[in-house]
Amino acid sequence: MLTSGGTPAPDAPVLRTGGVPLVPPGFTWPACAECEGAMQFIAHLPLDDGAVAVFYCQNAGMCDDWDATSGANRAFLFTEELQAAEVPTEGDTLLGAVTLLHPEAAPAPDDVVLGQLGGEPEWIQNDETPTCPRCAAPMTFTAALEEGLHHDTAANFGCGCGYVFTCRDCSEAAFLWQR
Ligand SMILES: [Zn+2]
Ligand SMILES: [Zn+2]
């Protein structure tokens, strides 16, 4: 389980929701394929061989940002040296809070569970494991993300849950959410 572990710096290289994405040099902030607006950064997930950055569209409120293949969300698996991204001046690009997510094997009763790291996904709807856009193999479940601590600063998964997948061989990542 992932529990809330406080408020890190916005560019801290730790497992967190919110803050600023850490990206390789030359990175282009993703734009939504449906509305063309700048996506919102959701989460930074360090892995032992890289880091995942998750984005989704929050501009029009009409884009299919829940769908792993719509182009209205985007997850990257970076294996390069990373630095804080330059944030676009237009669009709803950042969450209202930065939250450290702390892996906790056995959460205490008063811990707020904000996600899951590895293991098997707990699907709300049907199994929607994406296939890798490069090798077409089923991707590996990497993390689940709850919306967050407070409604006004949380992500919007329709009161559901976000799912992050990776293909480590291809350095690909994917994101979707269900409600
Ligand atoms: Zn959009
Ligand atoms: Zn692959």
Topology:
Elements: E1 2-4, E2 16-17, E3 22-23, E4 40-47, E5 50-56, E6 73-78, E7 83-84, E8 99-103, E9 113-117, E10 140-145, E11 161-167, E12 172-178
Protein name: DUF1963 domain-containing protein
InterPro entries: YwqG-like_sf
Task: Give me the CATH architecture, please.
Answer: Roll
Domain count: 1
Order of helices and strands: EEEEEEEEEEEE
Content-based structural category? mainly beta
Give the helix tally.
0
Give the CATH H-level superfamily: YwqG-like
Give the overall pLDDT as a whole number.
96
* Total beta strand runs: 12
**Share of helical residues:** under 10%
- What compounds are bound to the protein? zinc ion
Strand content: 25-35%
As laid out across the biggest beta sheet, the strand order is 6-5-4-2-8-1-9-10-11-12
Task: Describe what this molecule looks like in 3D.
Helix content is 0%, strand content 34%. The model has no long low-confidence stretch (mean pLDDT 96). The protein has a single domain, classed as Roll (Hypothetical protein YwqG fold). The chain has strands spanning 2-4, 16-17, 22-23, 40-47, 50-56, 73-78, 83-84, 99-103, 113-117, 140-145, 161-167, 172-178. One zinc ion is lined by residues 32, 34-35, 37, 57, 59-60, 63, 72. InterPro entries: YwqG-like_sf. This is DUF1963 domain-containing protein.
